[in-house]
Design brief:
Layout lengths: L1 H26 L10 E5 L5 E5 L11 H15 L1
Antiparallel strand pairs: 1-2
Amino acid sequence: MKEQEKSRRSFIFKTIGAGAAVAVAGWFGFKRVKKNETVKMLTQDGRLVEIDKSAIRSCGKISEEDIHTWVNNKHSKTK
């Protein structure tokens, strides 16, 4: 009976110790590896590609007029 109590007690202390070790490691902050965030975009020739968000610079909102001229230029080149 005593041997069984010792093994239970040992198991509980080992479990608590392992949990404490994980908590301390998390507290002191192992740096998490950030996944590269990607964005799916369509190229001018119609292929779908993934690009890192860090590689894209923001130029602001594109006007409707620019979109129409781009579409018209694209269609005139393909014909």
